[in-house]
Amino acid sequence: MSVFTTVAIDEITPFLHRYSLGQLVELKGISAGVTNTNYFVTTTHGKYVLTLFETLRADELPFYVNLMVHLAQHGIAVAAPIANLQHQYIDELNGKPTLLVPCLPGSVAESPTVEQCAQVGEMLAQMHLAAASYPAKMPNPRGPHWWTTIAPTLYSLMNPQDADLLAAEVALQTQHQHDTLPTGVIHADLFRDNALMNGEHVGGFIDFYYACTDVLLYDLAITLNDWCVLEDGEIDDERALAMLKAYQSVRPLNPAEIQAWPTLLRAAALRFWVSRLLDFYQPAAGEMTFAKDPSHFQRVISRHAQRRNFWI
Amino acid sequence: MSVFTTVAIDEITPFLHRYSLGQLVELKGISAGVTNTNYFVTTTHGKYVLTLFETLRADELPFYVNLMVHLAQHGIAVAAPIANLQHQYIDELNGKPTLLVPCLPGSVAESPTVEQCAQVGEMLAQMHLAAASYPAKMPNPRGPHWWTTIAPTLYSLMNPQDADLLAAEVALQTQHQHDTLPTGVIHADLFRDNALMNGEHVGGFIDFYYACTDVLLYDLAITLNDWCVLEDGEIDDERALAMLKAYQSVRPLNPAEIQAWPTLLRAAALRFWVSRLLDFYQPAAGEMTFAKDPSHFQRVISRHAQRRNFWI
Question: Which intervals hold domain Aminoglycoside phosphotransferase (chains A, B) (predicted)?
Fold first, then answer.
């Protein structure tokens, strides 16, 4: 499904000669992922993941790749990019920019445990601290400016009641500025399928290609909205409490963050409601298969709107 | 034995707060090593090795530490130094410069197999290639200038016959210049106890504190002299052949290297004969216990001198 660019044995072999990773043992396409082509590359030294970037250009990659390098250097559970013999992380294969990283231990936790949610919250906080010394910055391409621009293009496509709710939600967020909250590098897309769990522990956070500079607590809101959610959009109190407590054991929230938390939870849901609506009503060519149910995040927002206890 | 500087729980805990590695689970001194203090530090994130440098100063460490960072970035099996929240690899504890690295898989192979020797040869060649893009340089502090200076201080302490042999060996090396051979960063001390073997594979090369810029093939000579040696100083043909073949599968030797190889094998043995003689006759305070038998490398040289087939 997600091998958009095919790589043959006689193409990977000379490619691997540009690295210090031994001889090819096996090459195998990975079916997960909707944007890039990924292969498992097993060599005499170990098992690696090769990504061929299908949309990002080589000159757009350094922010993300150097961030992964930086976080790995701090012991954060991420795949550390591997440099080629020219000491470049980004190489090229079959006309696409590439990245090679070690294969991380673990698998996606579709129904995470309370302890897994705690470990993810703790690692996320550690990631926020470790990223404080990362020098590069990247505006959030999916922030308030984006959804405020995109949402009105969707109203006429939606049923009027949902469109009113979306417009109201955008208006609500417009009333809140979060300029005074701690900012830094955030993952911005830390859903369950972007983490490999090795038992209770975080094997690795993956897919940093939405990472950007934004409000740190917004990252926790995105994460909690997915990891702690029930099928009906309600949040599981036990998992949410565990995640928040573990996050705060590393980076305690300040009073302004505690005050902003309920709004940020709704902002985090709004961002994905809008992007899923966009995918649903205006799918990019060939992506139709992957469109996810937009109404899920509408329900998440609705539950947050009714909530009185936000686990802090 | 090798915990020279004691670290207590209430000292490591605030130290760990300067990193992104989770909470302390266990702290345990490591008995191996003769120069530095090493501890296993287990946290909620994983198992690490903490080194407190007992002789090297913080300002002497960057060449070695950045080299480890560089090699790890290339996928070479070395422990990747972990940066603290100030993005510094070198920190300080109890007045000593420190380094934290992940615990590598594997253990020391005292009686390496043929396949292990091949894997070490292959990884060493990969290391030489990967280090070519490492920008820093470091003269070899234990090169010809060193042994030519030190050897004469030992003659009067040795029995006259051995002293004559040593003088002859130093004279022999003086007749050979290796200025035209490929140079680069070498480990320079890749004995069996400086590699962790994970089954047949290299779990990691360790102890890079003799690394320097020198003739690449000299590094292979040092390595082969230890990994492929029998108790009587003879070299095991099968292991030596496997190591050389694997090394050359990655970095083929040029004609000048092939010609220099027998002399380099003797130079590599001479360097350790002299340093062991020095440790034996002029031990540094407190190191007496660790003095190794100098005559071992005298026998290695003697065997090399008689050899007609050097496995290339």
Answer: 27-253
Mutate to test the interface with B, among A23, A73, A100 (most CBs of B within 10 A): A73
Q: Is A47 near chain B, with CB under 8 Å?
A: no
Task: Provide ipTM, 2 decimals.
Answer: 0.90
Cα(A177)–Cα(A160) distance, integer angstroms = 28
Question: What 3-state class would DSSP assign to A125?
Answer: helix
Helix (H) / strand (E) containing B124:
helix B114-130
Question: Is the Cβ pair A20, B45 closer than 8 Å?
Answer: no
Structure tokens belonging to residue A304? 């947050």
What domains does chain A contain, in order, with CATH numbers? Answer: 9-102 (3.30.200.20), 114-306 (3.90.1200.10)
**Alpha-carbon distances, residue B140 vs A62, B147, B182, B192 (angstroms):** 36, 11, 15, 21
- Tens of pLDDT, residue by residue, chain A (312 residues): 468 999 999 999 999 999 999 999 999 999 877 789 999 999 999 999 999 999 999 999 999 999 999 999 999 999 999 999 999 999 999 999 999 999 999 999 999 999 999 999 999 999 999 999 999 999 999 999 999 999 999 999 999 999 999 999 999 999 998 989 999 999 999 999 999 999 999 999 999 999 999 999 999 999 999 999 999 999 999 999 999 999 999 999 999 999 999 999 999 999 999 999 999 998 765 544 566 888 999 999 999 999 999 998
| Cα–Cα dist B61/B48, whole Å | 19
Angle at Cα B21 formed by Cα B16 and Cα B25, nearest 5°? 75
Any chain B CB within 8 A of the CB of A67? no
Nearest to A211 by CA among A189, A183, A182, A179: A189
Q: Using a CB-CB distance cutoff of 8 angstroms, which residues of chain B are in contact with residue A45?
A: 75, 77, 123, 126, 201
Comparing CA positions, the residue from A9, A25, A39, A57 lying closest to residue A101 is A39
Angle between helices A160-174 and A295-306 (to 10 degrees): 60
d(CA B291, CA B282) in angstroms, rounded, equals 10
Instruction: Find, among B125, B124, B134, B118, the residue nearest to B73 by Cα.
Output: B134
